[in-house]
Amino acid sequence: MNPNTAADLPCRTLYPIVLLHGIGYRDDMLMLNSWGRIPKTLEAAGARVFQGGLDAWNSHENSAMALQPNIEQILSQTGSAKANLIAHSKGGLEARYLISKLDMADKVASLTTVCTPHRGSAVADLVAGDIPDTENLLSVNFFKRLAQRLGFGAMDILARITGDKSPQAGMAIRQLTRHYLAEFNRQVPDMPGVYYQSYGTLMRRPIDDPVFAATHALLKRIEGDNDGMVSTRSCQWGRFRGLIGDSNPDRGLSHGDLVDYRGLLLTHFNIPAVYLEIVKDLKQQGF
To answer: Which pLDDT band, with edges at 50, 70 and 90, does 129 fall under?
Structure first.
């Protein structure tokens, strides 16, 4: 039997897959893997998977400029004319900037964003000082005051320790505010010939993920349903494909869950299987 039939390789897309992580992650961090079990799961199904090599804490512009040669190297290595980008959170904004502002539209077949704050996040607004302290959200308020007192310098030091050469933590957070993203969306249009689609998720209750409990409560109050970092409205861009895990009326998924950060500890949902379906769909669409 030939093991390389189309049925055995349901994720062998025409173009390679490039995964782009969000804020606070690096592809080479040993203690905090940016995609969990997802890359190996996709590769086992035939996908050619690469990671973009983005910094953890940098501006959209700098991240996109660093990403550009990485994409070009992947295309040279694979002999492909284009790539399929799958981006979580802030990575989706950097991908949009790359496509629109760095003349990369002809080298990107599709952009799939997952939990990307296309319209910003009130969490970033609070930390950046755009809204006042919020009652009963001491952990969020503490982070805001610490960041403002230290001028984000401590975060830059931590970012350098984890691998960023020229981190810009303050800028990275300000570029996630709702005010900034409103202007970003006017200045960074979608490009013809690139397929844009998006997914999101939502937490049903703070207990769904205690790590995001405080930010979930903040966003619930200001923006409505959310995943603990991004509202269900803000995550929608291009062709919106829906909220992952929405069929479960009792338990939701958090912003972090969509990069498999809890791994096997998340017992009520199979995160890698979500990406299998995303990539299978890209293949069926001819990407």
So the answer is: confident
**In the CATH scheme, what is the homologous superfamily, with its name and number, of domain 17-284?**
Alpha/Beta hydrolase fold, catalytic domain (3.40.50.1820)
Where are the alpha helices (H) located in 114-270, listed in sequence order? 122-128, 138-150, 153-162, 169-174, 178-187, 213-222
CA-wise closest residue to 18 among 45, 47, 44: 47
The average pLDDT across 39-46 equals: 97
Tokens 């390789």 belong to residue: 9
Query: Are the C-beta atoms of residues 194 and 99 closer than 8 Å to each other?
Result: yes
| Interval 62-67 mean pLDDT | 94
The residue extents of the domains of the chain are 17-284
Residue (of 71, 110, 112, 117) closest to 93 by Cα position: 117
Encode pLDDT of 197-218 as tens digits.
999 999 999 999 999 998 999 8
Q: Provide CB contacts within 8 A for 233, sequence distance 6+.
A: 119, 223, 224
